[in-house]
Structures are given as C-alpha cells and as structure tokens.
Amino acid sequence: MARDECAEQTELLVVGGGPGGYVAAFRAADLGVQTTIVDESPLLGGVCLREGCIPSKALLHVAHLLEDAAEAEEFGVAFQPPRIDIDRLRSWKNSVVAQLCAGITKLAGQRKVRVIRGRATFEDSGTVRVAGADGGLIHCQRAIVATGSRAKRLPPAVIPTDCCIDSTGALALPNVPRALLIIGGGYIGLELGQVYAALGSKVTVVEMLDRILPGCDTDLARPLAAKLRKQFEAIHTSATLTSVRRGDSGVEVVFNKRGQEHQLEVERVLVSVGRQPNSDNLGLENTKVRIDERGFIEVDQARRTADEAIYAIGDVAGEPMLAHKASREGIVAAEVIAGRTTTFSARAIPAVVYTSPEVAWCGLTESEAKEQGRNIRIGKSQWGVSGRAVAMGRPYGVTKIIADAETHKLLGVGIAGEHAGDLIAEAVLAIELGAGVEDLAATIHSHPTTSETIMEAAESVFGTAIHAARR
Ligand code: FAD
Ligand code: NAD
C-alpha cells in the first residue's frame, strides 16, 4: 500500500457526491462514521442536481405551463401568445439548481462530512489520489464508489462531435433552435423534446426500435405517443442514422427508415441514446473490484464489490440508472459499513417519464411477466371514465395492473396520465407490502381523484369495475 507522510485519513471515503454518494455519506455520518466525500465538481448533487433530474424538471414545468395555457382556450379561456425570455428562463433554471446544490453542501457541513474537490483515482484498496485544487492522498478504511454515468456517444464517423449536443448541452439552453433532431426516443429524448417543442423548436425524433420508450409496455406509451404526434414534427421509429454533416445553413442529416433513405436539415442534433457507467479511469485495476462487460461494477445485495474494502452504488453499479435507486443503495451501503445488516431488496423500483402525459411503472411489466412465462391477469382502467381526469381536460390515460393469476398478488403497475409519477407511489408500496389485487380494490380512494383508476384497474382484474362498460 502506498504511504505518504501528509496523507489524510478517513474512515469512509465516498467518491462522487450525487444522489447515491451524498445520501450514503450523510447516512454514514449520522451513524457515527467519520466520512469524506470527494467530487470533481464544485457543486454537490451529482448529475441529478446539476445536469439531470432537476434542471430537466424545471424546464418541463415551464413546458407544461405553456401547454396548459394554450389548451385553456378549449375551456373558453384565451391568453395572449407567450413571450419567452430565454435568458431569464435559463437564469431561473440555474437558480433552482444552485439553491438545491447549496442545500446539500449545507447539510454536509451540519453533519461534519468533509467535502474535497478533485478527481479521485484508486492507488490501492485503501488509498485514493485526488487531483485538483484540494488534491492529495487519502487513506480510507472503506470506500464507496458513486461516480455515476455519462452520455453514450455515437461514433464520430456517423456524427461528428461538433454537429451534436448531449443532454447537458441541451439543458444549458443556449438558444431555441429552429429545428431540432433528437436521436433516441427514450427518457431524455422525449422529456427534452417536449421542452424544446413547447419553446418553439420543430422537433423530429429518430428511434432505432419500432416504438418509443422501449422500457415500458406499448399500451402505456400510447397516450404519450398520441400527444407527441401533435407536438413534434415527426417521430421516425425503426430508423437509423446514416450520416450527419455540417452544411451551409445547418446540419444535414440522412437516416434510413425501413429501407428508405430520408434527408433532413436541422439547426441542432441532440444525441440521447443511453448512458454508460463511469467505472473507467478510476484506478479500479489497482483494487480487486470486478467490472462486467457493460462497464458496471459488480456488487452483492449489500453493495459490496469483490474488494472487501470497496462498495459501489448508483449508476456505476447497474441499472436502472435512476436517482432514487442510487439513494436507496447509498443507504444500504452506509448502514452495512456502520455494522448493520441491511440489504438492497426492493421488489419495485418506480420509473417515471415526466412528459405530458407522464408515464410511470413499477414491478414487472406485462412483457417482462410474459417473458418469464408467468400466468398473469391484467386489469385496466381507461382515464376517460375518471371524473377527475375529464374535469381536468386530461382524459387520455390508462392505469394497468399485472397480477399473478393464481395468488392475485400484485406483480406490477403502469400508469399513463397526468401526475402518473406521483400516483405510482401507492403501487410501489402495495408491491413492497406484498398486497393482492383485492387489497387495492377494497381500499377507499378519494373522489374525485385519478387515484381511483388504481382501484378500478384492480376491480377490472375480476371484471367488477364499476365504471367499465358492459356488453
Ligand atoms: P451521479 O449523479 O452521476 O453523480 C456522480 C458524481 O461523481 C458526479 O458529481 C461526478 O462529478 C462525480 N465523479 C465522477 N467521477 C469522479 C472521480 N473520478 N472523482 C471525483 N468525482 C467523480 N433519474 C431520476 O430518477 N429521475 C429523473 O427525473 C432523472 N432525470 C434525468 C435527466 C437527465 C437529463 C439525465 C442525464 C439523467 C436523469 N436521471 C434521472 C438519472 C439520474 O441523474 C442518475 O440516475 C443519478 O444522477 C445517478 O446518481 P449517482 O449518485 O449514481 O451518480
Ligand atoms: P434511454 O435508454 O432511455 O433511451 C435511449 C433510446 O435511444 C432507446 O429508445 C434506444 O432504442 C435508442 N437508441 C439507441 N441507439 C440508437 C441509435 N443509434 N439510433 C437511434 N436510436 C437509438 O436513454 P436516455 O434517454 O439517453 O436516458 C439515459 C438514462 O438516463 C435513462 O435510461 C434513465 O436511466 C436516465 N434518465 C431518467 C429520467 C427519468 O427518470 N425521468 C430522465 C432522463 C434520463
């Protein structure tokens, strides 16, 4: 082990201060473990706070506001067309990020968690070199790797780097491009596509699979797809990029859709084709940590790696790459390091796409259940029968329940509709508690709320839904 006269000592070193890392550090500190965080960014909060969850939701809030105002005309309320001051919008979004990052730094101080700025690399299992302003050598008894992920790139031969931006570039909101091409119809492409469409860009999506949002069941993506068809110029599925080059008046794009070549000229191209874990350039080869073929650090239920001194959490430790999954793993790792016997044993991790309408799901999807050969029953409630959804002018949605056909245990729930991301919490709790469909059907839900669709979907598993049509 490398030894250095002026090396710092810490019981726990957390590498990365995102929703995985800072949550782990705070939990460990609360349990009496002397803890240090190292992050190469001057702002704590990780990708999630700086260039992910939070700035995207701030901009989506504005996009939804613009959409609500435009749709109010249908209810007899007409507003003047909006005047968008892009500089003020950008400043407001930045102030939201700054406020939340400052809050995390304050909480770190209150817990006496030392925060070091710089880039960390492991010299061995218990020694980390930090390069940067606060640089130096740190000896630690335990380390948690929480270095997150970065945007995947397409080969420069297909799309030169100076012709495209990633989600960080899009969230920086440099301007509102006249025409925006988005490669990838997943979370980022659809959320940021709706933001830019609301601000005035003509948005086109090129998605290589035969549908958008491949992670959820097709019927859940349908209400969103219908809305996007009105908001976007076009959504090309089963389409792959052939070439991109900078032309005289913009970026010239050629893509192939089901054997036919299409051409397009846009002002900007956003590449959102997934993310890859930050497990390289970390010196992990100097430890016993094992990395799988996709770049994820291999961990057990306690988030221990193959090196007994090192734990890994969050995006770098496997999918789904979601902030709340990272945070839960942070709690687990911190508690295990503090001597508790905690494991990561979630039955359901919610996934939410914050578009309008939102799409949310948890537990098993119908396709996953079928792939596993399970005997299932499906219950659905269309939002057109929900008094609240109709009263809000948002009757386009569906709530769906996937249950075990014999035990009636809840296996999964999917919701497409207004605030689906908030509604899914009930389903996550129900699955965690091992509830059956009868439990959801017999639970009294407030009227009029869209949460009633969960009760109705549960009833429809048995064909007893009150608001379902009868033949
Ligand atoms: P990160 O948040 O990526 O943090 C890792 C930290 O490690 C960074 O601060 C980085 O600076 C630091 N770091 C990396 N390498 C080193 C090193 N060698 N030395 C020192 N520091 C280092 N998830 C959701 O759940 N909901 C959402 O709404 C959502 N929206 C998103 C929107 C966008 C545009 C993007 C890109 C992602 C979004 N995500 C969302 C995903 C979410 O951001 C990630 O799942 C989450 O940030 C992962 O947390 P983490 O702690 O693993 O890593
Ligand atoms: P994604 O995996 O959600 O979607 C990528 C899409 O790109 C897929 O539909 C895929 O089929 C398509 N694709 C891949 N290669 C392509 C190619 N060459 N040409 C055309 N299409 C291609 O990835 P993302 O949208 O980049 O987001 C990355 C991750 O960040 C997400 O998986 C998620 O974990 C996280 N995220 C979460 C949220 C949220 O929770 N609301 C929001 C944004 C990002």
Q: Give the total of beta strands.
A: 22
Calculate the terminal CA-CA distance, rounded to whole Å: 76 Å
**What's the mean pLDDT score?**
96
> What small molecules does this complex bind?
flavin-adenine dinucleotide, nicotinamide-adenine-dinucleotide
* Structural domain count: 3
Percent in strands: 25-35%
* Overall 3D shape: globular
C-alpha Rg (nearest Å): 24 Å
Residues in helix, %: 25-40%
Low-confidence residue ranges: none
SS content category: alpha/beta
> What's the architecture of the largest domain, going by CATH?
3-Layer(bba) Sandwich
The major β-sheet equals: 7 strands, mixed
Total helix count? 13
Name the descriptors.
471 residues; alpha/beta; FAD/NAD(P)-binding domain; Enolase-like, domain 1; 5-stranded parallel beta sheet; 13 helices; 22 strands; globular; binds flavin-adenine dinucleotide; binds nicotinamide-adenine-dinucleotide
Q: Would you mind describing this structure in some detail?
A:
The chain is an alpha/beta fold and 471 residues long. The chain folds into 3 domains: 8-151 and 276-337, FAD/NAD(P)-binding domain (3-Layer(bba) Sandwich), CATH 3.50.50.60; 161-273, FAD/NAD(P)-binding domain (3-Layer(bba) Sandwich), CATH 3.50.50; 351-461, FAD/NAD-linked reductase, C-terminal dimerisation domain (Enolase-like, domain 1). It contains 13 helices and 22 strands. Strands 1, 2, 3, 4, 5, 6 and 17 form a 7-stranded mixed β-sheet that branches. The protein has a 5-stranded parallel β-sheet with strand order 8-15-9-10-11. A 5-stranded antiparallel β-sheet has the order 18-19-22-21-20, with helices on both faces. 46% of the residues are buried. Nicotinamide-adenine-dinucleotide (NAD) is lined by residues 154, 183-189, 191, 206-209, 214, 240-241, 272-275, 320-322, 352-354.
